[in-house]
Design goal:
mainly alpha; 0% strand
Length: 72
């Protein structure tokens, strides 16, 4: 669900920014829609990589917290 949410938030936001902020507005179809889809997929991919890193680094964080607690 978090990937869908990232796609739904990132895609339209970046598409609207790309359409309105440029000096000459991009045409809605296909340029803005393709750009929004690409940015939405990139946002979902970034969330996926962040969640994977968080899951993979959990044992290291636990070891680090254990070492910090033993020094006190």
């Amino acid at each position: 669900m978090r990937y869908v949410r990232a796609f739904v938030v990132t895609g339209p936001t970046m598409a609207l920014l790309a359409h309105y902020i440029t000096a000459e507005p991009m045409p809605w179809w296909p340029d803005t829609f393709v750009f929004g889809g690409l940015m939405g997929a990139l946002g979902a991919f970034a969330v996926m990589r962040f969640m994977h890193f968080r899951h993979a680094a959990a044992p290291i964080r636990g070891l680090w917290r254990g070492l910090k607690g033993k020094r006190s």
